[in-house]
Design goal:
The complex is a heterodimer of chains A (160) and B (440). Chain A has 7 helices and 5 strands; from the N terminus they run ααααβααββββα. Chain A has 160 residues and is an alpha+beta fold. Chain A folds into 2 domains: 62 residues, Arc Repressor Mutant, subunit A (Orthogonal Bundle); 81 residues, Glutaredoxin. Chain A is elongated, with a radius of gyration of 18 Å. Chain B is α/β, with parallel strands linked by helices and 440 residues long. Chain B starts with 27 loop residues before the first helix and ends in a 14-residue tail after the last helix. In chain B, 56% of the residues are buried. The chains are: A alpha+beta (160), B alpha/beta (440). The interface between A and B is large, with 46 and 59 residues.
């Protein structure tokens, strides 16, 4: 399988960043960037990365099982991640998460029937001073209120 | 959006170039126009030993959590080793409460690059990586762009500023793991493996990334180095208290009027930090407790907070400065619930490599969930304490301790709250239950 030209260029450069013979170092960045394009850790993707980095498939499976951002199940078009760790919890993160569950009609790590949204309750996003925080795909949103969340979801629905 | 209005009590060293309300990153041109990369020019004229000596004089201590003296760490690297030597930046920022590294990477990426260059020069390295957590894609892109700018202008590459010395730097993304903030787990992750910690010794300074001597420091630690080289170690040390040099970025969060990231001298009084810099406890409420150094640090009751916030004073008070994350809890905060949430976090993030941590965090999570639901017993309260004591110092890495320290301190300092939660629940409980009420 091949990736987009931009990603291919990125990978070609990335492999150079590790010492000779140690290109396995590029594994985790490569998996994450490839997942962003493909959607999930498909068997084809694992095969391709395995060939390129000369890494055994099982070593890739090990890594996928460990890192929470890597997923075998395709997520929704927009992945909504809400932090409920201490700073966010103190400022309403749990209520925000419950609100998001109701608003989207799904629970943790689930996807809406139309495949537009998936939801995940996540650990600290490193945005504690601007809590409660959430991430939609790779975009951070700070000081989120239920109203702000509703507005964001509605605007994302419209832009499809 | 992330930079807040400067506070008069702040001492701007690492953040001195920030031009509030400018929120965009300071790119190369703006950086160079204001003494940017002058420190590496100066460092190139110095002997490596002199650089390390200057960093030692500054009493700069690791800003990632452990507070290890930076100059000492650098001096452990054997420059004469035939192996390559590596610089690794820990930008995995995941300690709950901490949000400062993103400010540095997102606003002044060149400061971090310059810090890496100086560190590289000091230990005779030609290669570095900036390990950034996967969620921070925005900052990975900013760092990538800044690194490219530095390559284009000859600050990075095969011939740094015409000195004949080569130094290469690139970003490396994580993919969602708190454990990878631990230095040896981070190195495993850099090598393309699961983030399980390594047995120490050997420490990374002897055998780190790809089995070569490596120094791993936090983003903020490297970022302080250019100022130390430019203005001298003694100047930097003088900003703080003895053995606790310089300024630090403090992340204020929780029940505050003005949460945010501020730069304050080490040793600023904790109450000044909360009441002046942070604008005081929100909604006119009273202070109940403070988590002074990220979720792993033991909690302080309000009456214990009238102390200087530096590494040694907090250690004396039975807590730690950690990563500089200060979480403030007002009088309405539910301590039992906070601890239950934290234990769920550590159970989720334990890598499962060693048993005291894997089993300990899971049981702490279960018992705390029980206590939080109001179906625990007094014995459970003691069990949390005993279990945590059993974990302390018996794990491969600090994650076990990180879970045990808050568990012990919350239970010991706020026992009355744990007991009250059991009693208030029993009012509604008609008869003793033979079946567990919650399925865990």
């Amino acid at each position: 399988m091949t990736f987009s030209p931009e990603l291919e260029a990125k990978f070609a450069k990335m492999i150079q960043n590790y010492p000779p013979g140690r290109q396995k170092g590029a594994l985790i960045p490569m998996l994450l960037f490839a997942q962003d394009e493909v959607g999930s850790m498909t068997p084809e993707l694992i095969d391709e990365v395995s060939k390129r980095l000369k890494v055994n498939r099982v070593e890739i499976e090990e890594v996928i099982g460990y890192y929470t951002m890597l997923t075998r199940e395709p997520r929704g078009k927009h992945h909504v991640q809400i932090c409920t760790n201490v700073s966010c919890m103190l400022t309403g993160g749990e209520e925000l998460y419950q609100h998001a569950c109701k608003k989207l009609g799904i629970g943790n790590k689930q996807k809406t029937a139309d495949g537009q949204f998936s939801l995940e309750e996540v650990e600290c996003l490193g945005a504690c001073s601007w809590a409660p925080a959430m991430m939609v795909d790779y975009d951070f949103h700070f000081n989120v209120t239920p109203e702000k969340l509703d507005g964001l979801i509605e605007s994302l629905k419209k832009t499809q | 959006m992330l930079l807040n209005e400067p506070h008069p009590l702040e001492v701007k060293v690492l953040t001195r170039r920030y031009k509030y309300p400018q929120q965009d990153p300071i790119w190369l041109e703006q950086y160079v126009a204001d003494e940017g990369y002058d420190a590496i020019r100066k460092a190139l004229t110095m002997q490596p030993e002199e650089i390390i000596e200057e960093v030692k004089k500054s009493s700069l201590r690791g800003r990632g959590g452990a507070g290890f003296p930076t100059g000492l760490k650098w001096s452990f690297v054997d420059r004469k080793s035939p192996k390559p030597k590596y610089i690794v930046v820990n930008g995995d920022e995941g300690e709950p409460g901490t949000c400062k590294d993103r400010i540095i990477m997102g606003h002044e990426p060149h400061r971090l690059i310059e810090g890496c260059l100086i560190a590289g020069r000091a230990i005779g390295s030609n290669r570095g990586w900036v390990y950034i957590r996967g969620e921070y894609r925005e900052y990975i892109d900013i760092m990538d762009r800044a690194i490219q700018e530095a390559y284009d202008k000859g600050y990075l590459g095969d011939n740094v500023l015409g000195s004949g010395w080569a130094f290469h730097l690139s970003t490396h993304t994580g993919a969602g793991s708190y454990e990878c903030g631990e230095e040896s787990a981070l190195l495993e992750s850099l090598e393309g493996k699961r983030g399980n910690p390594r047995l120490k010794p050997p420490f990374p300074a002897t055998s780190g990334a790809f089995q070569a001597p490596t120094i791993v420091n936090n983003v903020e630690t490297y970022s302080a180095v250019p100022e130390i080289i430019l203005k001298g170690g003694e100047w930097f040390a003088g900003l703080g208290t003895p053995r606790n040099g310089g300024t630090r970025l403090v992340c204020l969060s929780g029940h505050l009027n003005k949460p945010g990231v501020y730069e304050v001298p080490l040793g600023m009084n904790m109450m000044t930090l909360i009441n002046e810099v942070g604008g005081g406890v929100w909604k006119g409420r009273k202070l109940k407790a403070v988590i002074p150094g990220g979720s792993s640090s033991p909690i302080l009751r309000a009456e214990e907070c009238d102390i200087p916030a530096d590494y040694d004073s907090l250690a004396k008070a039975g807590s730690m400065l950690g990563s500089g994350a200060t979480v403030v809890l007002d009088e309405t905060a539910d301590i039992v619930k906070v601890l239950a949430r934290l234990m769920a976090f550590y159970a989720h993030e334990s890598c499962g490599w060693c048993i005291p941590c894997r089993e300990g965090t899971t049981w702490l999570k279960k018992i705390m969930a029980r206590l939080d639901e109001g179906v625990g017993t007094k014995r459970d309260i003691d069990m949390v304490d005993q279990l945590a004591q059993g974990m302390m110092g018996r794990t491969f890495c600090a994650l076990g301790d990180a879970a045990a320290m808050p568990a012990m301190s919350y239970v010991r300092k706020f026992r009355e709250e744990f007991e009250a939660k059991i009693q208030s629940a029993q009012v509604f409980m008609p008869a003793p239950q033979t079946q567990p009420l919650v399925v865990l």
